Amino acid sequence: MTVPGTTAQQPTESTADALLRPHAEDAFADELTALALADDRQRPVGWRLSPWAVATYLLGGTLPDGTVITPKYVGPRRIVEVAVTTLATDRALLLLGVPGTAKTWVSEHLAAAVSGDSTLLVQGTAGTPEEAIRYGWNYARLLAHGPSRDALVPSPVMRAMSDGMTARVEELTRIPADVQDSLITILSEKTLPVPELGQEVQAVRGFNLIATANDRDRGVNDLSSALRRRFNTVVLPLPATPEAEVGIVSRRVDQLGRALDLPGGPEGIDEIRRVVTVFRELRDGVTTDGRTKLKSPSGALSTAEAISVVTNGLALAAHFGDGVLRPGDVAAGILGAVVRDPAADRVIWQEYVETVVRERDGWKDFYRACREVSA
Amino acid sequence: MTTAPAPRPGGPLLLGIRHHGPGSARAVRAALDAAAPKVVLIEGPPEGDALLALAADEAMRPPVALLAHAVDDPGRAAFWPLAAFSPEWIAIRWALAHGVPARFIDLPAAHSLALAQQDEAQQDEAQQDGAREDQAGEDRAREGGAGERDAPSAPEAPHGPEGAALRVDPLAVLAEAAGYDDPERWWEDAVEHRSPGAEADPFAPFEGVAEAMGALREEYGDGGRTRDRVREAHMRLQLRAARREFKEYGDEAVAVVCGAWHVPALREKTTVTADRALIKGVPKLKADITWVPWTHRRLARHSGYGAGIDSPGWYGHLFDAPDRPVERWLTKVAGLLREEDRPVSSAHVIEAVRLAETLATVRGRPLAGLTETVDAVRAVMCEGSDVPLALIRDRLIVGDVLGEVPDTAPAVPLQRDLTRLQRSLRLTPQAMEREVDLDLRKENDAAKSALLHRLRLLGVGWGEPAAGRSGTGTFRETWRLCWEPELSVRVAEAGVWGTTVLSAATANAESRARAATTLAEVTELAERCLPAGLPDALPAVLRALADRAALDADVGRLAGALPALARSLRYGDVRSTDTGALGDVATGLVERICVGLPPACAGLDADGAAEMRRHVDHVHTAVGLLTDGRDPGPAERWEAVLRKLAERDTVPGVIRGRAARLLLDDGRLAQDRAARLMGLALSPGTPPPDAAAWIEGFVGGASGGGMLLVHDERLLGLIDTWLTAVAPGSFTDVLPLLRRTFSGYEPGVRRTLGELIRRGGDGGSGSGSGGGAARAGTAAVPGFGPGLDTARADAVMPVLALILGTDEDPGAQRPEAQDRGALVEVTA
């Protein structure tokens, strides 16, 4: 790009290996090429691959020529199919989910597979200005030469429109409502007017938009119904089985622990299992055996939070305990994660402790620890 | 008929179908129209032939079911459900409309029911007979796909020489061969989604299916369904008879509508003797058959006698929709969502249709099916949420279509069962109202009571419980009986629930438990299930109860549910019902109340506090009943809660006082500690209305609070002190409260209290002002005079001696008699 200030500096071949984290389309370039070669199905205009190939890219598989496609997303096939199909229609895709459900990851890989470019990205924050979604001005040029197309600084969305690519908006609900609504015209009329120049940018076929949002804090800046109508919503679920979640937590904790130089051994796995069990039960509102219903607290209780509880517990055990993760080390963390609303959540937590934890075999220590911290 | 490329030219028209498949139904109609047969043979119990004419009745509206049951045991029954989109139904209606005889050719229900009975007898020791009722019906009804499970046989038990041989699901094999993981879906794609007209030849679909089934049966034989041989032999015999009868029209004049699985067997060349030999010796019992109304919900797999289809509503739609089924369906969904106040525009529908169709393309399906439309609705109309989707599933995909049966249909077995019970219990229905007293300790009376309770659950209000004469006894019941003619209609209506009073009441209670939305509903249901003696329904009810209790955040409702449970427990004990599970649920409820009550007591207004106080009372009583001879854990936790309530300042006075009083009554709170609490509550800093509320909580009501004051004069003294210290301005504020408190006492208690106060006042007048002096008096116990009145004490002595029996002095008894009143006052 010739315009200074844009972030889309394409990494050159020589620097790609040295990067901390290459883009999806670079990291999996081989797989994308192999898929494009093997893909004989119809491709929507502007797409690098057919919807079927995009779904295969995300879910993994083996191509007829023996190339193994690694799974990028582990989860229900149905969800990926709906997401890919949505991009082929003229509605935009909204990925919802609690933190840590791979929303951003999925959106990056979708963009990489569909358009071959995952960098047309707008990061949503409370301070995201309208310029980030529409266009800004290069004021030096504007003052020197007056308003012209050259003085315009296009946003990633605008570039995606003119090139027929997939644009991405992260954390859509964090963007102020008035800025969000500037997407309405783009998504419904597929055009971006530039009144200052009396021009407009019309979207080329192949343009679409993937937004991600956290569905636990919808209240931050809820989408207007006009905007919501322009999106097909796909909710990314939490890990389906306890084993999968225990695996994710212990892997992440292991990585984090090494980064923080925390000693941690396999003996902690029972405690991790317990944390995951507590989180899952409260989140799902039912005990693992499916016998007893529970109230769910207001917190998200995502896998990411379970990871932080365990990491915290490890730090406690390492610095103040005997280095082994014990019930007492995680109890306080769990309490903090569960009780977000001091009135309602505390009752929910106490009910859980008294009706579930107390009765469970082998949970005596944990029950005692919970009583201690919540007293 | 020459258009039908049957392998045996000129053979009968064999239409292999999938039961309840809308595509099959369309194809059957098209094929019948094209072939115009002279007789239609349908897979079904031949006993139903006599009832076929009813299918043309105006009042007959599907879904309905043919119900066959053993005459002497209505609990042994089998159902053949038919929906509007069932190919069999279409065939029946076609035959009736064209004036062509229709006949059922399956093995008679008399045999299949007897076979089921025989099987059960064989497996009796191996299996519990819990699911005995309707097992046959369930099995027969569940036969889903083209291939079907045999009618009357236990689901998991292998029998016959092939013992361990697995039953082959023919659809699954075909679907696997076609690369599908879901057999239902394969059938939909391969057969159901072909709309007639696209095919020039109406017989082609049947040919394809028949060939595939033929190949399958060559490989798998009967697929582990030994019973099918007998059934198919019967069908072949019937087919032969029909062909003979309609010989003059040729074999083409005979059409057979049966599960696709049976088609190869009907084509098989066998001898009459061989078929007869197969049928020979099959047991038989006396069976009766009738039409009963059915519902879409019951057709669905997950409830009761499923018919093996998940989505009767969707199938019905596929069958009814003249064209563009996906568009029409999504418009229906949008309509439903709008009714529920979700904004769904036409644009949503357009997008959903597009998404569904594109999804079908991505998934390589010829037409968007239910899965695609559900995915599209979720993503486009429901914002990714499954909550509105549950509504759509319930109302549209399953649907609440209710069938109707004309009044001329024979009586349902429930009526027979009721008549049988009435006879055996000697409880004849009479139009005249009368009262019946039942002693539940007698077996016959207990059975009568259970019957009446069950009928009440079913909405057959033959008996209404009347207030018993014996009052508090739990082993007596009084019923007011009155049989009105419309009750027969009610019984007929209740026939959808089951074939016996017991099974119908059980099914009804289970369904109510599932449908109940509030905790109170479920507790009431539990309370009704126990006297009705429905042990099989109890688990479902208790589960619903535990679930509702777990999700209910309102302590008031939880507390409201507990007394009924405790009563049920007590009732169960009387009838020696197993109430262990109920006890567990009740204990769980107590735990939740213990956790939730203290926070719920903060920040209440006067009305809220009064209500909460009632809850505290009820829970206290219930906890007492619950812990009677059981684990004392809940009682201890409840005591801790009461203590917390009694001592926490943010709790309204009336509850604090009540908690203190309950603890005191149970001996969990020492007298002096109670006095301390009262002192704190009545200390000068407390606003007088609060203090008065505390007093009301502590001694208010008819629960003997007055007697407590009469007996513990220290407490009375405390109240007296406080009252006299209340400023004149505040006095008018507290007066109504106090009046309410004390007016609840019995007149005798009030008088005694008044006397005590007066006396206390007299004693204190010498040393200071008001009742405070009672405490100030050095040696005096509050409320008593300072010294010992020896003269009066002596007068009491002879009576005391008499009572204690230490000294015989009969002469002394009479003169002292008039002093007894005083004695009671002093010694009590």
Structure in words:
The complex is a heterodimer of chains A (375) and B (828). By secondary structure, chain A is of the alpha/beta class. Chain A has two domains: 22-233, Rossmann fold (3-Layer(aba) Sandwich); 242-374. Chain A is built from 17 helices and eleven strands. In chain A, the strands form four sheets. In chain A, strands 4-7-10-3-11 form a five-stranded parallel beta sheet. A two-stranded antiparallel ribbon of chain A has the order 1-2. In chain A, a hairpin with a 5-residue loop joins strand 1 (61-62) and strand 2 (68-69). In chain A, helix 16 (344-357) runs antiparallel to helix 17 (364-374). Residues 1-14 of chain A have low confidence and may be disordered. With 828 residues, chain B is α/β, with parallel strands linked by helices. Chain B is built from 37 helices and ten strands. In chain B, the strands form three sheets. A four-stranded parallel beta sheet of chain B has the order 1-6-2-5, sandwiched between helices. A three-stranded antiparallel beta sheet of chain B has the order 4-3-7. Chain B starts with 12 loop residues before the first strand and ends with a helix. Chain B has six domains: 13-123 and 132-299, no CATH class; 321-399; 413-502, no CATH class; 518-669; 670-787, no CATH class; 790-827, no CATH class. The interface between A and B is medium-sized, with 35 and 34 residues.
